[in-house]
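job 3f2a | input accepted
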Amino acid sequence: MLEKLKRDISGQIVLPGDKDYDAARRIWNAMIDRRPALIVYCATTQDVVRAVNFAMDTGLPLAVRGGGHNIAGNAVCDGGIVVDLSRMKAATVDPGSRRVTIEAGALLSDLDAATQAHGLATPVGINSTTGIAGLTLGGGFGWLSRKHGMTVDNLESAEVVTAAARWCAPARPRIPTSSGRCRAAAAISASSPASSSGSIPSARKC
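job 3f2a | predicted structure (206 res):
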């Protein structure tokens, strides 16, 4: 079954004993010292689906790593499978609509680098090493939030792979639940100042 997973994914699998294993299981909170049975570096949405299916088929515990910044260490588990999204960090900005589409392994520094090139910003946290997916799912509060709301308030759509390995096309989010994980296509608004009609934007052109 593991050999099939290796053949089917376009990413990389790291196992105990591999030279990259210790680095792959290391997260921001260095006090967390957990040893997963395998780590799957996903490169595509289909990789995520296949990794989650593998966890279901084998009965292994499952952890999902975005930025790996969670202080409790939820991004890694003992004896299970880590679906690692940290190599999926592409960010694409549409300056005309002031929207950015960003993958779930991206950090806040990746988001800022992409948006600031166009003079845009959106409310995120204050630590550049935080993952954008976990921050957004947790609400997200930072320097711009008092005026422009939480990070999740700026989420326009999300592509989701559920815990049942079901792929859901990008759509406007409803209340987040533990049954799904945002993978990518989180289009976050970076809007201009409030219009004369009194509507309040989620973020503004800097």
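job 3f2a | Confidence is low (pLDDT under 50) at residues 175-206.
job 3f2a | closed
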